[in-house]
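Repro:
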Amino acid sequence: MPPFRINKILRYPRLDTVLMVEEFIKKHDGEFKKRTLWERLPKKMMYQTFCVIIDYLLYSRKISIDSEGKMGWVYYP
């Protein structure tokens, strides 16, 4: 079961939005914390939608959050 609650999700992200967030995190690996990363995305979205994407990326082990709260890309197949 995913760590996020499926019945509480207001908006599901589109695939292009998920891919955009993934590419942004890859490009800015370890530079931003969650809120700052959301504010600097090239395309604006609701914060709740962004949180769903981050929960998915954490659950699928594509990103990690360090002790300072900064996000980094860790998925290199």
